């Protein structure tokens, strides 16, 4: 697999329904070359198929905020440790009694609990408080979201 095959796969990951012409333009190859490469990738079982990802599948994540109080001299001392969690989406120093506010997005409640336990076990953590996200109606992009079934949302 060369760089063109990799670029074609990247284009398909972004949007598997885009036209061959669009993919060809993006990877700087002819339509016939892209068509042939896609056919070979399918024959080689690199591409096993194309699928539809429904919104409900993308919303299957479990989200939580963790309030942290610590006894480290500076918040920054905890950052390398916190960065070790791929599920940690943001870490903010905030005013008030809480030192840091973390936003975590994981595949399961069990993983949220595991992350919480690992953070709580750190010797500089004094207190951790968890706030589970129950619903999200919009994001900064303005996209309306709903994690609850439509008939249950208020």
Number of domains: 2
Order of helices and strands: HHHHEHEEHE
> How big is the Rg?
22 Å
Q: Please tell me the overall pLDDT.
A: 86
CATH superfamily of the largest domain: Lrp/AsnC effector binding domain/regulation of amino acid metabolism (RAM) domain
Shape: elongated
CATH topology of the largest domain: Alpha-Beta Plaits
Helix segment count? 6
Architecture per CATH nomenclature, i.e. the level-2 architecture of the largest domain: 2-Layer Sandwich
Give the helix level as a range of percent: 25-40%
Largest sheet: 4 strands, antiparallel
Structural class: alpha+beta
Q: Beta fraction of the residues?
A: 15-25%
Low-confidence stretches: 143-154
Count of DSSP E strands? 4
Can you identify the CATH class of the largest domain? Alpha Beta
Could you give the distance between the termini?
50 Å
Strand order of the largest sheet: 2-3-1-4
